[in-house]
Amino acid sequence: GGLTPSHGGATRTTCAYCGVGCGVIASPDGQGGATIAGDPDHPANFGRLCSKGSALGETLGLDGRLLTPQVGGVEASWDAALDLVADRFRETIAEHGPDSVAFYVSGQFLTEDYYVANKLMKGFIGSANIDTNSRLCMASSVAGHKRAFGEDVVPGTYADLEEAELIVLTGSNLAWCHPVLHQRVQAGGAKVVVIDPRRTVTADGADMHLALRPGSDVALWSGLLGHLFGEGCIDLDFAAHVEGMAGAASAPTLAQVAAATGLTKQELRAFYALWTRTEKVVSVYSQGVNQAADGTDRVNAILDCHLATGRIGKSGCGPFSVTGQPNAMGGREVGGLANMLAAHLDLENAAHREAVQGFWASPAIADKQGLKAVDLFRACADGRVKALWIMCTNPAVSMPEADAVRAAIRNVPFVVVSDIEAETDTVRLADVALPATGWGEKDGTVTNSERRISRQRAFLPAPGEAMDDWRIIAEVGKRMGWAEAFGWSCAAEVFDEWTRMTALSRDFGKVLDLTALEGCDYDAMAPVMWPVGGPERLFADGAFPRGKGQILAPRMGEMPLRDRRHPFTLNTGRVRDHWHTMTRTGRSAKLSLHIAEPFVEVHPADAAALGIAPAGLVRIASAHGAMIARAQVTDRVARGQLFAPIHWTGETASTARVDALVEGRVDPVSGQPALKGMAVEIKALAPA
Ligand code: SF4
Questions:
Q1: Which residue range is the domain that position 250 belongs to?
Q2: In the predicted model, is pLDDT for residue 406 greater than 70?
Q3: Taking residues 63-77, what's their average pLDDT?
Q4: Minimal CB count within 10 Å: which of 273, 357, 572, 673?
């Protein structure tokens, strides 16, 4: 067939970056590098790649790689390092209990890595203190899906983007953050509405741009729900499968929505009329929705409109959460978050816990939620966490209140960091640093935003002494006394155990079902959607895992986005050619050409009032930290608003480490931090 593991001698794999999950064909050059092309047969991208994916070959060199285990900054053998990690974790647990240790993992993990880490922490150590940087990415979508459907499921497929007549992109700069999906949107020819406080590149190409006031998303979408009811646009047949419809009665009026969002009644009427009269609507949402103190309510306000009108699970219809990271979805499936069990089962449900423990034949099972990302690092700061293992991520840069997080990590008596890089801001804080294999060197699977599982395949040898993450964790599990449970010999065996485990999801009425893949040919596995063998689109029949779908009709809460000392609202996000803290994209000279240095967007009127010159240096400060960057004076942001990218790193405020400014304020339902709107002040450093 078209999707064999190799393609003319080259290797088929999946892109290392975003949740689109594009298929990539890698042809090694024999000197440690590779030529990269889009896979014409992969159903996520059909041969397309964006700038980041195309430049993957430039990021493969071994400069700066961590190649041997380090203990106290000194090279050590694997045996010595692993024994030390196992001993210190075992001793800490014996002395202070299982909740005194924690893992912080990553949406860059492959599903197999995630599965093994979760199994060790929840089933064998017996704590749920494992959380992931995906908490910063899509935790609000997970919580919203669970409230509305009873399970964390994206109902639609990428093909819906081509089949829709109207696509609403809300809180999503798709053209830069998920470029291949944006190309698919353009290929489909649907009308496009962009809802974003900022005039992004995505908004430039849209038919309508609604520059709503930051924090007013719930009002906008609840207003649409009220409008749909007012116009009699409810699907009465589908309504039999949905509860909570009465909530629409409390939807805000048009005047109230206009007051909250700052949009004109005319703009609102035009958007509501378009949504209402178009049958095939996909509402795509991303970090602008998720990364907020009311992120879960925002998600549900969007899902409400699709549930009320039955615009779900049909061709060209549905709500669509696009995930930031390559395997945020896979991590959710195997329970790699502090509030979930594997296989979409619930920590709070005794029958679920018993089933998971039975499957693993494990000595323990976590019976309460663990520490979510922001709380996890606070527990490091106040001494509750005494041994911490950070894997495949750089929280000293990427977490809110990054300066405090750095201090918190320093405060933990024993810190292990597994990474591919020798010198990230987080690796520098490690007592033990463990060299992991990276993209192109390891085997495993990832799940993209449309529930499609694809293989990542090794096409380069593991450099130095680097080891796959799942194997490092399993080696520690064995040394802690659980040799049989962690005795896999390859990633395929881990995947096989995981597919068998999904029989539990099916038994408890969940959609996630991979059992048809049990015993499959892992090497040859073609991309496949779950439920494997089931329908591609879900819930058009109204069969929701919770019974009836649920309309939440949330109300808009208070959004403290400014105060007297900090009169500006800072929004954050990605640029087109960099990824997260640039540990990979920073290696490519070509990618750094697009935008070479950090910047902050300031409205011309604000710049004039504060004496900020175009390209002049400014200092931005919040109650938690400060950064310096070059001003980009532009009307892409509204007055009173600023925008800065998240990627740049560094030790001090003289660099633009934006997450040092972000307050660790979280959504109370999902635990996701509000990275998109914080109160700051801005000053010219060198006045014009
Ligand atoms: Fe990679 Fe995402 Fe670009 Fe596709 S769209 S090539 S998955 S970064």
A1: 140-322
A2: yes
A3: 96
A4: 273
**pLDDT over 70 at 3, yes or no:** no
Mutate to test the pocket of ligand 1, among 14, 18, 161 (most ligand atoms within 8 A of CB): 18
What pTM was estimated for this model as a whole? 0.94
Two tokens at 242? 């949905």
Percent of the chain with pLDDT over 90: 78
- pLDDT of amino acid 607: 96
Tell me: do 372 and 485 sit in the same domain. yes
- Cα angle value 488/511/285 (rounded, 5°): 100
Which amino acid is residue 436, in one-letter code?
Answer: A
**Amino acid, res. 262:** G
Residue whose structure tokens are 């393609």: 7
Among the residue ranges 75-79, 374-378, 587-591, the one predicted with the least confidence is 587-591
Fill in the DSSP letter of residue 544.
Answer: B
Cβ–ligand 1 distance for 591 under 6 Å, the answer: no
For ligand 1, pick from 50, 329, 454 the residue to mutate: most ligand atoms within 8 Å of CB. 50
Whether 19 lines ligand 1, by a CB cut-off of 6 Å, is no
Confidence of residue 654 (pLDDT cuts 50, 70, 90): very low
Average pLDDT over residues 24-28: 95
Same domain, yes or no: 303 and 161: yes
> Cα of 14 to ligand 1 centre, how many Å?
9
> Ligand 1: which residue has its CA nearest to atom 4?
22
Q: Name the nearest CA neighbour of 549 among 313, 284, 368.
A: 313
How high is the ipTM of this complex?
0.99
Distance 309 CA to ligand 1 centre (A): 32
Find out whether 338 and 376 touch, Cβ atoms under 8 Å: yes
| Shared domain check, 572 and 515 | no
- Compute the distance from residue 62 Cα to the ligand 1 centre, in Å: 22
For residues 14 and 145, membership in a common domain is answered with no
CA of 119 to the centre of ligand 1 (A): 30
Domain count, the chain: 4
Q: Cα(29) to centroid of ligand 1, in Å?
A: 22
Same domain, 414 and 316: no
Q: Does 104 sit in the ligand 1 pocket, CB within 6 Å? A: no
Instruction: Decide whether any atom of ligand 1 lies within 6 Å of the 49 Cβ.
Output: yes
Q: Check pocket membership of 21 for ligand 1, CB cut-off 6 A.
A: yes
Q: Which CATH number characterizes residue 198's domain? A: 3.40.228.10
pLDDT of residue 688: 46
E strand intervals along 196-299:
208-210, 242-243, 281-285
CATH of the domain at 44: 2.20.25.90
Q: Whose CA is nearest to atom 2 of ligand 1?
A: 18
Summary count for the chain: helices (H), strands (E): 24, 27
Average pLDDT over every residue of 559-564: 74
Give residue 72's Cα distance to chain centre. Answer: 32
Q: Is 203 in the pocket of ligand 1 (CB under 6 A)?
A: no
Question: Any bridge partners for residue 391, and if so which?
Answer: 418
Q: What is the CATH number of the domain that holds 368?
A: 3.40.50.740
Q: Which of 56-60, 69-73, 118-122, 480-484 has the lowest mean pLDDT?
A: 56-60
Q: pLDDT at position 1, please?
A: 38
**Tens-place pLDDT, residues 269-300:** 999 999 999 999 999 999 889 888 899 999 99
For ligand 1, mutation pick of 13, 24, 180 (most atoms within 8 Å of CB): 180
Cα gap 215→662, rounded to integer Å = 16
CA–CA separation, 462 and 441 (whole Å): 5
